[in-house]
Amino acid sequence: MNLLRRNSWRCIQTNQKNNFIVGIIIALVVVFSYNVEANPVDFIEGLPNLAIVIEEMSQVDADLFGIAFWAMFETIQMAFIGTIVGVVIALPLSMLAARNLNSKYVYGPVRAVLAAIRTFPSILWAILFVIMVGGGAFAGVLAIIMYTVGFVAKLQYEAIETIDSDPMDAISSIGVSKWQLIRYVVIPESASHLLSQVLYMFDYNVRQSSILGLVGAGGIGFYILGHIKWFEYGKAATFMIVIFVTVLIIDWVSVKVRDKYIVKSQHGMEVKAK
Fold first, then answer.
1. CA dist., res. 75 & res. 52, Å (int)
2. CB of 107 within 8 A of CB of 98?
3. 11 pLDDT band (50/70/90 cuts)?
4. Hey, which of 33, 150, 226, 248 has its CA 20 to 30 A from 177?
5. Other CB atoms closer than 10 Å to residue 273's CB: what's the count?
6. Which residues of 126-146 are buried (b: 16+ CB within 10 A; e: fewer)?
7. What is the pLDDT of residues 150-165, one digit of tens each?
8. Mean of the per-residue pLDDT values for the chain?
9. CB neighbour list of residue 129: distance below 8 Å, 6 or more residues apart
10. Mean pLDDT value across residues 93-122
11. Which of 67, 77, 73 has the alpha carbon at shortest distance from 223?
């Protein structure tokens, strides 16, 4: 009976604590909304303007689909190159940044560099590289590489740090080198995480590449910006439709790859779509 009372009291205390945290979060949302001048009335009053834009975007210019597909193809190439090169660079950096593989004198500076890379979003990297190498797809590829390096390296060293220490200790006890430890334990144990990260980054980079064109870094975004500047929303919608279809296809392919290689390797079975 006393045990039941103690458990009930603990549940009450836990619920009170959770309610207190939720209350703090709600209060912060209200305060921050006031600080950024978020006004729902302005949003409601702006809905008629949104309706006008949607009506104009419904007037799609079918003659531009050919140009849109070629621009999307360039965008996919940018994302593919940027993702692959970025992952190749990020993988060794993630090994150096893992706390369970290196001393603080190694992983500390490496993490600082990766944090500095992540400080700038890809569009700011694109502006920098446009200044360096001029406008075009190459500047966009360089921006994607930088963002991919910072993002994937962080996710990967966090995945490495979650690896069970028992296999690593067992391999280390027989006197293997660090390279052999990485090759036979770290990489196999974190491979599914890496594949998942590659798929996510490619999907993200395709969508991000569509925006980089807004600052002259190539891709389909260049055409979208040009039409929006002249209020040609119907023509811009043509390119947006192509982006939407491409993202759906990439998402479908990613799901198939995840089900076949990632989920199957983690659970020992293949997922069948219902």
1. 29
2. yes
3. low
4. 150
5. 6
6. bbbbbeeeebbbbbbbbbbbb
7. 999 999 988 888 887 7
8. 82
9. 138, 139, 140, 142, 143, 217
10. 89
11. 67
* Residue found under tokens 């700038």: 120
DSSP type of residue 103: -
Largest CA distance in the chain: 78
Residue 262 and residue 88: Cα distance in Å, rounded? 20
Which pLDDT score, from 0 to 100, does residue 269 have?
46
| pLDDT at 84 (0 to 100) | 94
Specify the long-range contacts of residues 208-211, CB closer than 8 Å, at least 24 apart: 208/79, 208/122, 208/123, 208/144, 208/147, 209/75, 209/76, 209/78, 209/79, 209/82, 209/140, 209/144, 210/75, 210/243, 211/123
Do the beta carbons of residue 62 and residue 124 sit within 8 Å?
no
Structure tokens given for 65: 């689909």
Angle at Cα 73 formed by Cα 239 and Cα 254, nearest 5°? 95
CA gap 207, 133 in Å, rounded: 22
Asked if residue 195 has pLDDT above 70, the reply is yes
Helices (H), the chain: 2-35, 40-45, 47-57, 65-97, 104-119, 122-133, 137-161, 165-172, 178-181, 187-212, 221-229, 233-257, 264-267
Question: 170: which 2 tokens?
Answer: 């067992």
Residues, the chain, total?
274
Task: Return the SS3 of 160.
Answer: helix
